[in-house]
Design goal:
The protein has 506 residues and is of the alpha/beta class. It is built from 14 helices and 18 strands. Helix 1 packs parallel to helix 3 and helix 5 packs parallel to helix 7. The longest helix has 23 residues.
């Protein structure tokens, strides 16, 4: 059915539905990214003001039929949630370790409010970064940095966990397990920051950990050792997530170029100065092939026709190299109208061109927008473009092809009850669905005595967590004979088979 929407960072990023319906768009992901550059807008906002801003963003996303948000909750080894492992983020209160006033848990608040709007929540964590500068005064005195200084290294003007240490992997697994266990999230999300982007004339300082944990790699194989460090944490996190809650997804939004084909025949026809495999030590193709990640959302932040990294070339390459895993294309919403950017971003709507181009590829399951600011400012009318042309109808989030799950049971005893001029559609609630709770119900309506195309989102009239639908409250009033179908969607995103319906004259 329709594709889902993803949000990255603590900024919000959104993905709309296509009005020109294509069958695969009934299940699509439209993702908005919310990063710490987007929310809170200021560090001195009260809890009440923070909540108000978030509600405004989520309402905006819902109005564009976005179905997923990527919410940054761990930008620098800190927390946008109540944690016993890491301090409260300074992005919330201006000072690390200080909880929000009128205490509330921002992550729990976002989950509650997003799920009310049938928006999935993917939480975005940075695995290794500890600071954005060399100013250690920003760190709380209770930060792990001061408890176990040997876990950290300075590279350039920033501090990082050392990825080569077993203790680093153990701690990150504890952080992720804690989040998955305590919060009703839909996915864990990493972006492009694994080993940091290279600093000119400086080598990442991991000689000590290489000697301590060589893991069979020779002195001239440090690059392979670094990739192995990242491979291990990815595989371990997948196991941690699935052993805690098997339906929670694990996704990565990498830099858009895996490798140039000038250095690897499997690479893309690009001339990028940075490559995931060689510079960030992230072998995305290995993770996709082995299934240690459940989805990939490559950051294709360049315009169609860019010489060194052409969007059209890269969209085709990722479509052909996703190894059957869910593929969501990362789009640069905040670049629209940038007076310093290439002409394509300043004139016309480059994102509309890219969304149209994505229709050429059947492996592309949706889009992820960075960041929320592009939508909150409606840059170059992007909100209107999406609402009127691409995300006109609600989309159900796609089933993840890397996760096994059973179909949901279909609601029984579907009936229409009339009370004078009023009419209600009712059904029996599914209390338990094979150990996996029902997330919501989907109501379809077809004119006449027969059901029609369940792959066309225009036939969805409502999503609801209730077991009763007041037909008066719908935008379209029903007159004449209609056939109604109610399905259930569970946490694995599996929808029940539409085997049963009710036909009534209204």
């Amino acid at each position: 059915m329709n594709k889902i929407l993803i949000l990255l960072f603590v900024a919000l990023v959104l993905i709309p539905i296509n009005a020109q319906y294509k069958k695969h768009e009934m299940r699509a992901v439209w993702i908005a990214t919310v990063a710490n550059i987007d929310w809170p807008s200021q560090r001195n906002l009260s809890a009440k003001q923070q909540k108000k801003e978030m509600i405004q963003m989520l309402d905006s996303f819902a109005s564009m039929n976005m179905n997923t948000v990527v919410f940054q909750i761990r930008p620098t080894a800190d927390a946008f949630y109540a944690s016993t492992l890491e301090p409260w983020s300074h992005w919330l209160t201006g000072r690390q370790g200080i909880r929000p006033d009128s205490f509330y848990d921002p992550l729990q608040f976002v989950i509650d409010e997003a799920h009310k709007r049938f928006i999935d929540v993917h939480v975005w964590l940075n695995p290794y970064r500890v600071t954005n500068s060399d100013n250690l005064d920003i760190l709380s005195k209770n930060h792990l940095f001061y408890k176990n200084r040997n876990l950290f290294v300075k590279y350039g003007d920033k501090y990082y966990f050392d990825p080569g240490l077993d203790e680093t992997r153990e701690f990150l697994n504890r952080v992720v397990e804690d989040i998955v266990q305590r919060y009703d999230i839909d996915a864990i999300h990493f972006d492009d920051y694994f080993y940091p982007y290279r600093v000119k004339d400086e080598e990442f300082p991991d000689d000590k950990s290489f000697k301590l944990y060589p893991r069979g790699f020779a002195p001239n194989q440090k690059d392979d050792w670094r990739r192995n460090n990242v491979n291990m944490i990815i595989a371990e996190l997948q196991q941690t997530i699935k052993s805690t809650k098997s339906w929670v997804e694990f996704g990565v939004s990498p830099f858009g170029v895996w490798r140039n084909n000038s250095v690897d025949s499997r690479g893309s026809a690009t001339q990028a100065g940075v490559q995931n495999y060689d510079d960030l030590y992230a072998d995305i193709l290995k993770w996709l092939q082995e299934g240690t990640i459940d989805y990939v959302a490559p950051q294709l932040y360049w315009e169609i026709g860019k010489k060194v990294a052409d969007y059209s070339v890269l969209a085709k390459w990722w479509n052909e190299n996703s190894y059957g895993k869910n593929l969501y294309i990362g789009l640069y919403a905040s670049q629209l109208g940038n007076k310093h950017a290439a002409e394509a971003w300043r004139k016309g709507n480059e994102l509309a061109r890219q969304l149209q181009h994505n229709k050429l590829y059947n492996q592309i399951d949706g889009a992820v927008y960075f960041s929320a600011k592009g939508f909150m400012k409606n840059l170059l009318g992007i909100n209107d473009t999406l609402r009127n042309n691409y995300y006109k109808y609600p989309a159900l989030t796609p089933v993840n092809r890397n996760i096994k799950g059973e179909d949901s049971a279909q609601p029984q005893n579907v009936r229409v009850v009339k009370d004078g001029s009023d009419a209600y559609l009712l059904w029996d609630r599914i209390e338990e669905d094979g150990g996996c709770h029902v997330k919501y119900y989907v109501v379809y309506a077809f004119k006449g005595k027969k059901v029609g195309d369940f792959n066309d989102p225009i036939n969805i009239i409502a999503r609801t967590s209730d077991s009763c639908l007041d037909l008066r409250n719908l935008n379209k009033r029903f007159h004449g004979t209609y056939s109604f179908v109610v399905t259930a969607v569970n946490r694995y995103k599996h929808e029940s088979k539409p085997d049963y319906w009710v036909t009534r004259k209204l």
